[in-house]
Specification:
By secondary structure, this protein is α+β, with helices and mostly antiparallel strands. The chain has a single domain, classed as NADH Oxidase, CATH 3.40.109.10. It is built from 8 helices and 4 strands; from the N terminus they run ααβααβαβαβαα. It has helices spanning about 15, 30-45, 65-75, 80-85, 110-125, 140-145, 170-175, 185-190; strands spanning about 55-60, 90-95, 130-135, 150-160. A 4-stranded antiparallel β-sheet has the order 1-2-4-3, with helices on both faces. α2 crosses α5 (about 110-125). The longest helix is centred in the middle third of the chain and has 18 residues, at about 110-125. The protein is globular. The N and C termini lie far apart (about 35 Å).
Length: about 190
């Protein structure tokens, strides 16, 4: 199925191709060099005071560790049935204070979003898909990974190649089959 966006104005092809599937190909791994490239793109994201407050916990299935399973287990129950097919699962966290002065970083969540967007565009340029989600259990992330007192678990990302909707529960497959829609510019430009 073609999931290309239908923009009202010309935009870069990466934005047209980007979508967030529920169906990932469980038989097609993402190699470590590609995963490293995705996080290199995230590393070069702009941030308030150049604080770079994003932190990621990366689980790659079949890498010889149990991190992928631990990340999967931190997802809310509604995300686990489809995310189980993604070969890479990631938790997105933020450092809530600035290193240079210890003050609260009110832009940290914004900056994590920007870093994850850069990562996503790099993924799309390599033929991958990323599905970002807020559905995690932050307390379980803290209990499982002990990220530190000023690190806040916030999001998750499923990364992989587009899969067949027949391999996920019907409710998620139906979501993958919906038309992509966005609010008109007149609704977002105030």
């Amino acid at each position: 199925m073609n999931r290309d966006a239908k923009p009202d104005h010309p935009i870069h092809a990466l934005f047209i191709k980007r979508h967030s599937p529920y169906a990932f190909d469980p038989a097609r791994p993402v190699d470590v060099a590609t995963v490293n490239a995705l996080f290199e793109a995230a590393r070069w994201t702009m941030s308030s005071y150049n604080a770079q407050p994003w932190r990621y916990i990366v689980g790659i299935r079949d890498d010889g560790t149990d991190t992928w399973q631990k990340v999967h287990d931190c997802l809310v129950e509604g995300n686990q049935p489809w995310a189980k097919n993604a070969p890479v699962l990631v938790l997105g966290l933020v450092k809530t204070t600035f290193a240079h002065n210890g003050n609260p970083n009110s832009a940290a969540e914004h900056d994590l979003g920007a870093a994850s967007a850069f990562l996503t565009l790099e993924a799309v340029s390599r033929g991958l898909c990323v599905h970002q989600m807020i559905g995690i259990d932050p307390d379980k992330v803290i209990a499982t990974f002990a990220p530190g007192p000023d690190i806040k678990p916030l999001t998750a990302l499923a990364i992989g190649y587009q899969g067949n909707p027949e391999h996920i529960p019907e409710a998620y497959a139906a979501r993958d089959g919906r038309l992509r829609e966005r609010l008109a510019q007149s609704e977002i430009l105030l």
